[in-house]
Automatic annotation (TrEMBL):
Keywords for the protein's UniProt record, in alphabetical order: Membrane, Transmembrane, Transmembrane helix
Stretches that traverse the bilayer: 6-26, 57-75, 81-102, 139-157
The organism's place on the tree of life at top rank: Bacteria
One Pfam family hit: Anthrone_oxy
Organism: Paractinoplanes abujensis
Matches recorded under InterPro entries: Anthrone_oxy
Keyword Signal annotated: no
Name under which the protein is recorded: Putative membrane protein
Keyword presence, Endoplasmic reticulum: no
């Protein structure tokens, strides 16, 4: 049982850390770079990024962070580790909810607009996407996932102290 507990905690920490990196990279690099482009480039590039990110690597990290953290919470043996894992789980549930309720619908609406070559009003489509809203909620995802990662890192420290 010890090996399963530690494996779940390590997997939760690794996948959550990866997701913090993904959300952070979008926040301070991808969206910042796309913000400086014209409407056609923004729409085309964002659509391409959104199609590319739906892959087994991303989905393993995105869903894995939730599943492994839940498993780590279920398997946590005592009061020393459990509060940290539960805090991480709650934070990541918030991230998961924001992603499903805000970011994915905005992404899907932008993809549904079609190819930039066939869009008559590129500025209108970009404005309807609402970059500011997408980016604001992504900042929340970045902060919450980074905090969840920190909680899981601390849970590992505590686990190591317990022996």
């Amino acid at each position: 049982m010890f090996a399963l507990r530690v494996t779940a905690l390590i997997a939760a920490t690794m996948t959550t850390g990866l997701m913090a990196g993904v959300f952070g990279l979008y926040q301070h690099t991808v969206m910042a770079g796309l913000a400086r482009t014209d409407d056609r480039t923004f729409i085309g590039a964002f659509q391409a990024l959104d199609r590319a990110i739906i892959n087994p690597w991303f989905m393993t990290g995105f869903a894995g962070a939730l599943l492994f953290t839940a498993a780590a919470a279920i398997l946590s043996p005592g009061r020393e580790i459990l509060p940290w894992v539960l805090a991480a789980l709650v934070l990541y549930i918030v991230v998961f909810g924001i992603t499903v309720a805000v970011n994915v619908p905005l992404n899907d609406a932008l993809k549904a607009a079609g190819s930039p070559d066939s869009i008559a009003d590129l500025a209108g489509v970009r404005a309807a996407f609402d970059e500011a809203r997408w980016t604001a909620w992504n900042l929340v995802r970045t902060i919450a996932t980074t905090a969840a990662f920190g909680c899981l890192c601390w849970a590992l420290v505590v686990r190591g102290r317990l022996g």
